[in-house]
Every structure is written in structure tokens, then in C-alpha cells.
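Deliverable D2.4 — example input (C-alpha cells):
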């Protein structure tokens, strides 16, 4: 085959969200990359909901963007609706979310990769890894030929021995209409890897022309269209609305009539599904006291009539799905495009990886995405980005690139996977991050762009934009810090905002700290307006958050300093944990299996107590 003997730095197996970010990152940094995919027409396919972001997930997309990844840019270019979630809460909880045009999203990703001269493609199924002297050197394919590279990244999604369930019917497949990937799991098990099974699901897609939208609640996007990327992108010409519908008792009874044929309840599905995204049958079974459940009716694109029924994920028989769906208000005449289904697939417990996402058992072999037991496009994309970066760094003899828990949600996710593992599909939440006030969606560039630029991924354009932003924040804040406000200047404003009036002059930062007002409210005051004139909203928002939450931010920074001291306490790679007789056998086995690099990482392992850490510290001090 033409090009089969070419030399590559990185082979990426799979072209989903993890595979695309991995290929882009490694290639952008200078590696020659080969992407192997079973279907060139489904690169960056949004297999489930055509949306990016959401609670905590939106923060991840902004972090990917700040580092120089492409998920945010692709989303901005293909969005059909944008919303900032949790605006009623503090800024640590604000999370951007965008509905995407499914076709345009996949098309944009493919074009981005094709425009990079370092990215090559071959449409082929991979069925094994070539390992020599403990190092991955290539992959085996169903062509009967091998492809070779200095590092391999597996991003197989739900395709490893995938089984699709619709009622009592079972089909082999990694996605509806696409065959499963076989051979890889068996090959890795022979090498010595542990594997398991997980399950996920997807709802029916219907013909939007058959729905009665007058029966639904309208859910518009934000009046001011936001974005994911810190680089300006072309805005969507027009936002499309989503809608909200509800199930009812009749729908529930119809669904229950099919439970005896549901793979969820008849034993056909043995694996664990995502806890926080249950199927509709699981919801009505677990929450029997609820007389209705919310459904989101979401368009799949700006041109298509296909509609995604978010919240109605199911693996019930097709005729039961159809009958139940038609009993929802507005769905009386609904027509299927395709039914919902569940899918089981193989994964590899992520405790078998290091923090670079390189496997401990085989050098130069990296895992990213659902193969590590995660769920969600965003979780997959950030792992792909980090695997791509570290594969490049390893190949070119450069230092590993690892983000810590205080630097990024990406760092939290990977640390959770490596130190705690997962027995159910892992999904990111803001509650998983102990420093979430520092890890906001609005400051991802301030946290990460310089790091991304230092490794050759974030562009000079990004760095210059960041430097200007930091300079503007510093200069404007200095001017505002010493500005005193007279009571007469804010009397009307404070009355409107229902906050206590002033009796004497007060410095502006103290006033902005009041929960009822924002910095931009003071633009009506001449002295403030003169300083904020022609200032970007991003800069104003950063200063506003600083004034309001500085005390809390300082406390989190103190906690970070304590954690960093533990991070600096390194554990030798060959440390014998079994000599720690005062630690339980379970604790010693976990420490030996995960082999944490620092005391902080050891403390993150499930089941390792503070007393265990003290024993470890005593032994290390000797």
C-alpha cells in the first residue's frame, strides 16, 4: 500500500473527540501523525447529544482552547445555540454550553486535520498492538499489514467489542450502523492488561416536522451570544431554539410494559452505565414517586429536520419506545428516524496509566477517552489533547506535560482516574474540584495559555492576546483600587438595587463586593466610566470577580500552597510498599498497583488514610 512503510512519530487509533485532539496536538507541535479510523466519514462524530459544554464540561472545553486545542473553536464555528448555565450562582459554577450542528461540527474537525500537513489518514480497522522489548512500536490491522510509529495512542471510544442492545435484540457494533472493533482487547489482555465492561445509551431521533411545538416550553439561547474560544470567531448568524417537554403517567405505564424485555432488567446487560445520565426506564424505576420527567427537544442542525430527544435514553424494544413517545404532549404524531439503544463496550481501568496517560505496562502506549472509563465528548477530548502532547514530548525527548488539580479541571479528571480508578463511566462535575473558585471558565487562558505556548501548542497570537489582557487588568485595577465614591454618586443606583445607602465616601472595591451590584453598574459614574472606557468585557469581568471573591480566592490559594508542599514530597519509583507493615494489606496493594509519584497522589488513592500517609512519610524520611 502507498505510504505503508512511511515513518511516523505518533499513530492515533480512532478519530472521535479524543483522537482528533490527540492528532491535532501532536501534529501542531511538530510530530508526523497517522490517524487510523474504520470510517473516514465519521471523523469527530457526535454519537450522542449534538452539544458541547455544560456544568464543569464547559470549563474543560475552555481549558482545551486555552492550551491550543480545537474543540472550542470547532464548537464556536458550528454552534446553533449558546447558553451560560448557572448564572444565578457564583462564577465558579458558571458553565458555557452550546448546541452544535452535528454535520458541520464533524466537517469542520475533518477539514482542520486535513489542512495540517503533519496529519495523514488511513481507513482501516486495527486489531492489535505491536510490542517489542516492552515498548509499543506499531499496530496490527485487518489488512494483514502493520503500521509503525514511535508512540501509539488508543482512542477507541465505545467500539472495543461493542454490543448494541434494542430490547431483546443484540447487534455487534460500536455505534448504530458501524461495526465493532475486535482483537485489541484480547491482544492487550495477553500482554497483561486488566479490562472491564461499561455501558452507555442514546435516545431516539425523530422527524421534527412531525412534532407539535406549540405543546412545548420554549428554551432560547442567551440574548448575548457567548463563545468557547478565547480567540474571536465568526458568530452564528441566528440562534435556533430548543424546547422542553415532559413525560406523564401514561408514558411511564407504557414503558413499564416493556420492562420484561428490557436488557436493563432481564440480565442481558451486566455492565454499569453512567450514574448521572440514566435511561428513561432507569429513571421511572428508581424515581417511582415522580409523575413526570423533563425532556429536552434539541435540533441536530440548522438545515436538517432531525431532532434529538435529550432525557429519553432507552434500550427498550423499538415498538415500546414508539408507543410511549407518542403519548408525550406534542409527540402524538412523532415519526422515528432511529430508535434509542444501549451499547456495551470494553474499557481498561485507568489505574494502569501514569499521569501522562502512558500505560505503565507498555512504554510509548497511551490510552485516551472512553477506553479509560470516562463518558462525554469533553472528557474524551481533554484526554486526547494530553495524550497527544505527551506522546509528542516522549518521542522528541522532552519533559512530560502534566496538569495538577490546582491548575485545571483536566488535571482533576486525570488525577481522579489514575489514583482512584472508576467502576462506572466517569463524568466531570464542579464538585470534584477542590479549587473550583480558581478553576473558573472565564480565567482558563490566564491559567493555561502560557503553558500551552511554552510547549509549542498555543499560538503566538494567543499569547499576545493574553499578555494584552493581563496588562489591561493590571492597569485598570490599579486605577480603580484607589477610587473613592461619594454617597450622592450612587444614591439612585443603590436604591434601585435595594442595597444600603452610603453615609461617607468609600473605596470602589468595597462597594463592588456587595452582592447586589456589579462593577459594570458603576459605569454611570463619570470617574468610573472614564477608566472603563473602551475596556473589554473580559477585563471588566475579571476585575469584578476579584473584588467580590478575593477573600475566598486567597483562602483557596493557601490550600493550594499546602497541597504543593505534599506534591514536592516525591516517592522513589522503586519504593517497596509491602514493607509498610503498619498499613493494611489492602492499602499496600493499592499503593503498589498505582505507584503514586508523590505523597499528595498517595493521599488521593481511595482507601489510603492520613495515618497511612504518616507511616509512609516516616519510612521516606529514613
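Example output (designed residues):
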Amino acid at each position: 500500500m502507498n505510504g505503508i512503510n512511511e515513518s511516523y512519530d505518533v499513530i492515533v487509533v480512532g478519530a472521535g473527540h479524543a483522537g482528533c485532539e490527540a492528532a491535532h496536538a501532536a501534529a501542531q507541535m511538530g510530530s508526523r501523525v497517522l490517524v487510523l479510523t474504520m470510517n473516514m466519514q465519521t471523523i469527530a462524530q457526535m454519537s450522542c447529544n449534538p452539544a458541547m459544554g455544560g456544568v464543569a464540561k464547559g470549563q474543560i472545553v475552555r481549558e482545551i482552547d486555552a492550551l491550543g486545542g480545537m474543540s472550542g473553536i470547532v464548537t464556536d464555528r458550528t454552534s446553533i445555540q449558546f447558553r451560560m448555565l448557572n448564572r444565578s450562582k457564583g462564577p465558579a459554577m458558571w458553565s458555557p454550553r452550546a448546541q452544535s450542528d452535528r454535520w458541520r461540527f464533524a466537517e469542520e474537525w475533518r477539514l482542520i486535520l486535513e489542512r495540517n500537513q503533519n496529519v495523514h489518514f488511513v481507513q482501516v480497522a486495527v486489531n492489535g498492538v505491536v510490542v517489542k522489548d516492552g515498548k509499543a512500536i506499531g499496530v496490527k490491522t485487518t489488512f494483514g499489514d502493520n503500521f509503525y510509529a514511535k508512540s501509539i495512542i488508543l482512542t477507541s471510544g465505545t467500539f472495543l467489542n461493542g454490543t448494541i442492545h434494542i430490547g431483546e435484540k443484540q447487534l455487534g457494533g460500536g455505534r448504530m450502523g458501524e461495526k465493532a472493533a475486535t482483537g485489541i482487547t484480547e491482544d492487550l489482555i495477553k500482554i497483561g492488561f486488566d479490562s472491564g465492561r461499561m455501558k452507555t445509551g442514546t435516545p431516539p431521533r425523530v422527524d421534527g416536522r412531525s412534532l407539535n411545538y406549540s405543546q412545548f416550553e420554549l428554551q432560547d439561547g442567551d440574548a448575548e451570544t457567548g463563545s468557547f474560544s478565547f480567540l474571536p470567531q465568526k458568530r452564528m448568524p441566528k440562534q435556533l431554539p430548543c424546547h422542553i417537554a415532559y413525560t406523564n403517567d401514561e408514558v411511564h405505564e407504557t414503558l413499564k410494559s416493556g420492562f420484561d424485555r428490557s436488557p436493563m432488567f432481564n440480565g442481558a446487560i451486566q455492565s454499569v452505565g453512567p450514574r448521572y445520565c440514566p435511561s428513561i426506564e432507569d429513571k421511572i424505576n428508581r424515581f417511582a414517586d415522580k409523575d413526570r420527567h423533563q425532556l429536552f427537544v434539541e435540533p441536530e442542525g440548522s438545515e436538517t429536520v432531525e431532532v434529538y430527544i435529550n432525557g429519553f435514553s432507552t434500550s427498550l424494544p423499538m415498538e415500546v419506545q414508539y408507543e410511549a413517545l407518542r403519548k408525550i404532549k406534542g409527540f402524538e404524531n412523532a415519526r422515528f428516524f432511529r430508535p434509542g439503544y444501549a451499547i456495551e463496550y470494553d474499557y481498561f481501568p485507568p489505574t494502569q496509566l501514569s499521569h501522562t496517560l502512558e500505560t505503565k505496562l507498555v512504554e510509548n502506549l497511551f490510552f485516551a477517552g472512553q477506553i479509560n472509563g470516562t463518558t462525554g465528548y469533553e472528557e474524551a477530548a481533554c484526554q486526547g489533547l494530553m495524550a497527544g502532547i505527551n506522546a509528542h514530548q516522549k518521542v522528541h525527548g522532552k519533559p512530560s506535560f502534566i496538569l495538577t488539580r490546582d491548575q485545571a479541571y483536566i488535571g482533576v479528571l486525570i488525577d481522579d482516574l489514575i489514583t482512584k480508578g472508576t467502576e462506572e463511566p466517569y463524568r466531570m462535575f464542579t464538585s470534584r474540584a477542590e479549587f473550583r473558585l480558581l478553576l473558573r471558565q472565564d480565567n482558563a487562558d490566564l491559567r493555561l495559555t502560557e503553558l500551552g505556548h511554552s510547549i509549542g501548542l498555543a499560538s503566538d497570537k494567543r499569547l499576545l492576546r493574553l499578555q494584552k489582557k493581563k496588562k489591561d487588568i493590571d492597569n485598570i485595577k490599579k486605577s480603580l483600587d484607589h477610587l473613592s465614591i461619594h454617597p450622592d454618586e450612587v444614591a439612585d443606583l443603590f436604591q434601585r438595587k435595594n442595597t444600603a445607602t452610603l453615609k461617607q465616601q468609600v473605596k470602589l472595591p468595597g462597594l463592588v463586593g456587595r452582592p447586589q451590584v456589579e462593577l459594570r453598574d458603576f459605569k454611570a459614574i463619570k470617574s468610573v466610566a472614564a477608566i472603563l472606557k473602551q475596556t473589554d468585557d473580559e477585563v471588566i469581568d475579571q476585575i469584578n470577580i476579584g473584588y467580590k471573591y478575593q477573600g475566598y480566592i486567597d483562602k483557596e490559594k493557601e490550600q493550594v500552597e499546602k497541597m504543593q508542599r505534599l506534591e514536592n514530597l516525591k516517592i522513589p519509583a522503586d519504593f517497596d510498599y509491602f514493607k509498610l507493615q503498619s498499613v493494611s494489606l489492602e492499602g499496600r496493594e493499592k499503593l503498589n498497583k498505582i505507584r503514586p509519584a508523590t505523597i499528595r497522589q498517595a493521599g488521593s488513592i481511595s482507601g489510603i488514610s492520613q495515618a497511612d500517609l504518616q507511616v509512609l512519610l516516616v519510612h521516606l524520611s529514613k
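The two ends are 59 Å apart (CA to CA).
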